[in-house]
Amino acid sequence: MLLLAAEGVEGGEALPPGVEVHRYQRGGRLALPGSSILAGRSIQNVLRRLDVDLLHAHYASSFGWLARLVGFRPTVVTAWGSDLLTDPARSWRAAIRVRQAVRHADLVTVPSEQLRSRAIELGAEPNRVERVPFGVDTSEFSPGSAMGDLEPLGLGGHRIIFSPRALRPLYRHETVLRAFAKLPEDVLLVMTGRGANPAYREGLQALAEELHIAHRLRLIEEIEQRQMLALLRGSAAVLSVPASDGLPISVLEAMACGTPVVISDLPGPSEALGPMAERLAVPLADGQALADRLNEVLTLPAAEREELGRALRRRAVESFDREAAMLHAERLYRSLVAAASA
Length: 342
Known about the structure:
Helix content is 47%, strand content 15%. The protein is of the alpha/beta class. The chain has two domains: 2-134 and 323-341, 3-Layer(aba) Sandwich (Rossmann fold); 147-320, Glycogen Phosphorylase B (Rossmann fold). The longest helix has 20 residues, at 322-341. The two termini are 22 Å apart.
């Protein structure tokens, strides 16, 4: 497998064996007119030197657009969520790029049915759109003990609400804080500082002081993989209530761990929960509904909580297992390459 990455972009050191990194020129650090064309030509030059059967671009409004400029066949474009749901409304340029990317791809893959419908609405041919969930490693993300890894974080012996999304306006952490203020005093709220918007983070910290909950807020700057697994396993609930979402991986990971989740009643997250969405989803930006739902989860009898955890785990394994999703993607790859060679 070959990975194309722009010159000067960090990464590639921890890739699996067998993945080769090849660099292309970005056309300058600034988004100047013509820079995308220069980057596309650089990618074309790289592809000419390599034995490439298929080009796969992730995120329609950026790399999907670059793939359109490159003109390689066959090309797969994978949409992530915001590239279809919010980027087209951001600017006329973004709208054109997204439409061009999905219209000209040989295959568009999407993680949810909502994004499938949206891709078609933006011009993708229905028979070229396939739902392929990102999926989770359901062998790694599984029920288990978390105490040993939570104690070093100062979280041992506490009931925890974990909000794993980045501190950015899209994820409505102000709604989370206002709902959390209505929960029992012995409950802690854990969030991550990674990828935070500095101004938004500062505003949230001020709001936490105003609501008198700052002493119950735990902000972990970088959550390592082992710590993430422990938090997902050991939390009383994991929540994700953004204004827009495709198919949130953190929700799927929590489900695979058998941990109750509370979500916005958006199509993508609701698809993740299936029949359980009616019980665990809340109206968008409704802080009181979020507090009520979290309280319901916190007060579940042990047997009912275990039953809910098993149902969530079963849903994750049956519908969102990563290996099954990758095997599906491989079959699609082979079909495209065979058709191109015929």
